[in-house]
Specification:
Helix content is 34%, strand content 18%. The longest helix has 23 residues. The protein has 5 helices and 8 strands.
């Protein structure tokens, strides 16, 4: 087959149906994109109407506390359990207690600004899983950065790498991951 310019071009071959292949997205793809956008917009609108948590605070351990009568666990981190010890078998130290002290110090450093939390989920123990700030700093990031918690999401991987490289907190020596410690205690 020759084109108007005189060049040779092979004839177009279509699939078995005899029609030219579709160009662009299918209708089902457009619907999936629209549903995803609607869900994102709904989440952003709902986030504006969910009131933040604030009030008097009582620290339970390195990643959970009570804030204004609501039990809260920090999103994206896992700190040593309160009665967990770390270190070599001949040189154990109370890393769970130290993680709790680090949380208390972070809250005390916030001063009059206090702690505010934005709930993102709930857990099986009835706690509000939240992203919290103390004095304008992300409390989860601070605990991981100081080495008193491990990151359980991608959000704090950079802080964890820095704490591990510097040997801060629980990264100063051997320790059992908090989740493994809990599983062994059951």
């Amino acid at each position: 087959m020759r084109t108007p310019g005189g060049r040779w071009r092979a004839p177009r071959r279509f699939p078995a149906g005899g029609r030219a292949p579709r160009r662009g997205w299918r209708a089902s793809t457009w619907w999936a994109v629209l549903v995803a956008l609607a869900m994102i917009i709904a989440a952003l609108v709902i986030e504006r109407f969910v009131p933040p948590l604030d009030g008097a605070m009582r620290v339970a351990d390195g990643d959970s506390f009570e804030l204004g009568g609501t039990r809260v666990r920090l999103e994206g981190i896992d700190a040593p359990e309160l009665h967990q010890s770390c270190g070599a078998p001949d040189a154990l130290w109370p890393c769970g207690q130290r993680a709790k002290q680090a949380m208390q110090q972070a809250v005390a450093a916030a001063g009059k600004d206090g702690v505010t939390c934005r709930p993102v989920d709930g857990d099986r123990y009835g706690r509000s899983v939240s992203i919290c700030q103390a004095g304008g700093r992300d409390l989860g990031a601070l605990m991981v950065e100081q080495g008193w918690a491990v990151a359980t999401s991608f959000a704090y991987r950079g802080e964890q790498a820095a704490a591990r490289a510097a040997g801060r907190g629980i990264w100063a020596g051997p320790f059992e991951m908090p989740a493994d410690f809990r599983a062994r205690q059951r």
